[in-house]
Amino acid sequence: MRWLPIAAAVCLLSAPAARAASDAPPLSPLQAAQLQAVCSRCHARPDSGAPLMGDGAAWAERNAAGFAVLLRHTVDGWRTMPPLGICGSCSEADLRVLVAIVSGLPDPQAAR
Amino acid sequence: MTWTRRNVLKGAAAGAVWTALPGCSDPTPTLAPGGPGYRPGHPLPWRNWAGTAWCEPAVRAAPQSEDEVVSWLARAPGPVRPVGAGHSFSPLVPTDGTLFSLDGLAGLGEVDDAALTAWAWAGTRLGNLGPLLASHGQAMPNLPDIDYQALGGALATSTHGTGRRHGSLSDPIDALVLATPAGELIACDREREPEVFHAARCSLGALGVVTRAKLRNRRAFRVREVTTMRPIQELLDEAEARADAAPFWECYAFPHSSQAMEIVTTETDAPDSEPEDADLNALGDMRALAIRLVQAGRPGAAVLDAILGAIEPSEKVGPSHRVLAHTRIERFHEMEYTVPADAGTACLREILETIRVRRIPIVFPIEFRFVRQDDIWLSMFSGRDGASISIHQFNDLDYRPYFDQIEPIFWKYEGRPHWGKLHTLDATRLAERYPHWQDFREVRRALDGDGRMRNAYLARILGS
Fold first, then answer.
1. Is A12 at the interface with chain B, CB within 8 A?
2. Which of A97, B57, B237, B303 makes the best surface tag, with the fewest CB within 10 Å?
3. Which of B392, B443, B456, B376 is nearest to B92 (CA)?
4. Number of domains in chain B
5. Which of residues 20-39 of A touch B (CB under 8 A)?
6. Inter-chain contact B38–A50, Cβ cutoff 8 Å?
7. B41 lies in a domain?
């Protein structure tokens, strides 16, 4: 029952992000919690200064660097993006799914 | 702190000539993030928000129920270190054993609308807790300056906001459940297992893993935050009276300047203010100019005063959980000590004078807050009202040349370091600052005699 509000919040993500999500592997309950509790704290808040989920223009230049760079910046931190996106529970597999959803750039490893 | 780019740049333009001074560059050594970065094909490293602590854990545990917490704790390789948002600057978390996250245990449990209490899972991020409580007509009595932290991490370090009538977040806790390293669940409050309760409300994650806590809340309320620049000496002269007059009061003193930013927050029934025109990068944008002004000595300080004085008052109104906590995107390093409340302004004055006389090249404002005393054994506010003073350095600069000069001033005023922030004290020197130090050690010995929760940092600050 604890997952109901999380699932509802994920459903409220913008349409482009939802399209990206449809290309990504299905979210585990933990990944849904990570997306709602951690990623969305900045990437779904217009006042955070972070590029928003679904904002293609904001992500275009970042995504041009490729998925590997996005992943490295997520793990190590990059400018105002904190290391691991302050997600203590995130494994690399979790981060790959979450980065794909937040940026809208599919993980090439997931396509293999 | 509310800046607007318009205001800052308007002031900065007046001092732009100083940026052309020859030989003026920031002399502070840079500091790269520590530890191994991401390496494809290798285990995922962990690093804290500031990049000052890191590790390569053998195991990442992410239980999604209290039963799973117990099961994991019984078999997880040590050291077992709980992690929340990783916002602590001190190395509380690093382990080559098990990194233990409660992200999968988030949200509210039982809510009592009449008693205004709510059980909350320890993995809940504070920023998500506010809206959840608001949906039940409740609010936490106070919040810290930022709300990225997980509830469990905030409690473990006695994280606090500001206000002479408010204790830390660990204070309004009526009960909690602790999962011990042996894999037992202990439900405790002031009557049941009171020693465990007094120790576990601020435990540094040394006793096991707090899975949930019963929050003693109040009815949801709205606040108005007013931010104004004022002369620092005048503000410090009146600090205690001004803090008595407002439920939430704090100030930021600007080194090498006569200016401070006062933030007064009071309750209101007024409607939400318009979204603020805050420039989240203003401090970073101003950094290069401010460094040059500091190096220019007294004339530069006058220009800095003019720039800061150009910042206009601002106001923000909304639900408490949206106003008391702020968005901070500029990463930094931080040291904070809490000194006795009546010594707070003297301590801050000495810090500012030391910075001025030694011409320490620092532009980051110094945060000054009041917090009410509590009866929690290892809380920084244990048995005495406190004034918490926080010094910061930009994340890419070496904080040590600055912090090393200021930390002895905190010691002179009997300061206690914030458990989640940087300091250099060890167990011997910390023990003399806490009347219940030995009581905590005995609970720790009873619950974790084998030291499965102990990492190198805990060995330093708590002893073996």
1. no
2. B237
3. B456
4. 3
5. 29-30, 33-34, 36-38
6. no
7. no
Q: Give the span between the Cα atoms of B13 and B18, in whole angstroms.
A: 10
**Is the same domain home to B76 and B141?**
no
How does DSSP classify residue B208? S
> Of B168, B187, B219, which closes a domain?
B219
Q: Taking the model in full, what pTM does it have?
A: 0.92
pLDDT band at B300 (very low <50, low <70, confident <90, very high): confident
Residues B197 and B231 in one domain: no
Inter-chain residue contact A84 with B46, CB threshold 8 Å = yes
Structural domain harbouring B18: 5-25+221-417
Token pair listed for B246 = 């407002």
**CATH class, range A3-111:** mainly alpha
Tell me: the pLDDT tens digits for B260-295? Answer: 999 999 999 999 998 766 666 677 777 877 778 888
B113 and B54 part of one domain: no
Give me the CATH number covering residue B195: 3.30.465.10
Query: DSSP secondary structure string, chain A?
Result: -THHHHHHHHHTS-HHHHHHHHHSPPPPHHHHHHIIIIIHHHHT-GGGSSPPTT-HHHHHHHHHT-HHHHHHHHHH-BTTBPGGGG-TT--HHHHHHHHHHHH-PPPHHHH-
B291 falls within a domain = yes
The one-character DSSP state at B240 is: H
Cα gap B18→B12, rounded to integer Å: 10
B280–A49 CB contact, under 8 Å: yes
